[in-house]
């Protein structure tokens, strides 16, 4: 019997590789002869970088960067095992979790730090990028990111714009003469699970501005700034980013990248599935069972999380799929329709969240063992 073990991380407690290894230990306790294949997974959100680094036996690069307020910080990005692709999570340098509540202000926050990570990878010869946009503290249309790569955003006096969303209204022209030459040969896949356009009532500023610290007055100003930016882009590059689905991700960073880089938006789970060649693995390895998992399994899991994506592919190949979760709650009928066979919580009795998270690897191993004992008995 060949079992593919392909979980996401249990966020806050156990990374995806450790989850997979715990599941494997539980299986091998029951049946040492079982053939297991470990493949850490991710959905394009938090943890995608480390999960893909682990899945490809890559490494993490530590680099000096800046936070959303342009303060010096230590940051990091991943490079895949073949040395060809950099995985960058915007949240590591431009994320909302890097700021205190009273520091949140999308008028002045910047994506410049994320641009420094891209710049470092380009300087190392990397040409392919996966950029995960979740968790931003910014609303600067990705201008900061692009400034770090050499793009000059100039006002009517020919002076460079200061960092932050509030200055975009002053944009008059964009000078690309000092852009890093490596940029033109680089390709960017953007993990983007939101469908919001760049501007308007459903755009970046109005939908996400408040959670980043913007008042109603700020939101209106920020949206006006993004519209002005989009108008300049359309005039200078003959490309309209105003209402592209997903262009509003990360305060318009997706739109800015689409306008100036060789970039493509993809749903997070689809990007990861394609990158790790998940479909090919199912066909080539003759998988009999898939065991996946993530920290919480509930009705929202069917909306593009790792378990959902795996279940749909497993169903196409008629492979049963078991999911383990820190908790299993609510109605799972949509997951069953997508191909899930059954879901199990790793907790076996009353315990607080801290205990469950602290002992998650042991709990995962033990539940995997119990599930596999049942399966082996039925198979025999």
UniProtKB/TrEMBL annotation:
Pfam families per UniProt: Gly_kinase (PF02595)
Domain of life: Bacteria
Keywords recorded for this protein, A-Z: Kinase, Transferase
Keyword Protein transport: no
A molecular function GO annotation: kinase activity
Xref: SUPFAM superfamilies: Glycerate kinase I
Signal peptide: none
InterPro entries, A to Z: Glyc_kinase_flavodox-like_fold, Glycerate_kinase, Glycerate_kinase_RE-like, Glycerate_kinase_sf
Family: Belongs to the glycerate kinase type-1 family.
Name of this protein: Glycerate kinase
């Amino acid at each position: 019997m060949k079992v593919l073990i392909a979980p996401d991380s249990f966020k806050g407690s156990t990374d995806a590789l450790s989850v997979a290894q715990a599941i494997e230990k539980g299986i091998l306790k029951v049946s040492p002869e079982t053939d297991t294949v470990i493949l850490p997974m991710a959905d394009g959100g938090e943890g995608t970088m480390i999960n893909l680094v682990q899945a490809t036996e890559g490494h993490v690069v530590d680099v000096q960067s800046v936070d959303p307020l342009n303060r010096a910080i230590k940051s990091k990005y991943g490079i895949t095992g073949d040395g060809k692709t950099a995985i960058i999570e915007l949240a590591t340098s431009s994320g909302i979790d890097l700021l205190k509540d009273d520091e949140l202000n999308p008028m002045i926050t910047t994506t410049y730090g994320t641009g420094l990570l891209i710049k470092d990878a380009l300087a190392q010869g990397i040409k392919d990028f996966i950029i995960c946009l979740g968790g931003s503290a910014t609303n600067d249309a990705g201008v900061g990111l692009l400034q770090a790569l050499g793009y000059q955003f100039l006002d009517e006096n020919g002076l460079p714009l200061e960092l932050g969303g509030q200055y975009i209204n002053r944009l008059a022209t964009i000078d690309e003469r000092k852009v890093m030459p490596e940029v033109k040969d680089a390709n960017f896949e953007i993990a983007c699970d939101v469908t919001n356009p760049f501007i308007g009532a459903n755009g970046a500023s109005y939908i996400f501005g408040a959670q980043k610290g913007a008042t109603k007055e700020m939101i209106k100003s920020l949206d006006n700034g993004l519209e002005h930016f989009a108008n300049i882009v359309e005039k200078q590059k003959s490309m309209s980013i105003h209402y592209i689905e997903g262009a509003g991700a990360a305060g318009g960073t997706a739109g800015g990248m689409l306008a100036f880089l060789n970039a493509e938006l993809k749903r997070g789970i689809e990007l990861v599935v394609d990158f790790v060649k998940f479909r090919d693995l199912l066909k080539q390895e003759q998988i009999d069972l898939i065991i996946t998992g993530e920290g919480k399994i509930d009705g929202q899991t069917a909306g593009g999380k790792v378990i959902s994506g795996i279940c749909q592919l497993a169903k196409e190949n008629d492979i049963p799929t078991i999911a383990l979760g820190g908790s299993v709650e609510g109605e799972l009928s949509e997951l069953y329709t997508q191909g899930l066979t059954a879901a199990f919580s790793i907790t076996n009795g009353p315990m607080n969240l801290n205990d469950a998270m602290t002992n998650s690897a042991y709990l995962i191993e033990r539940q995997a063992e119990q599930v596999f004992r049942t399966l082996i008995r039925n198979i025999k």
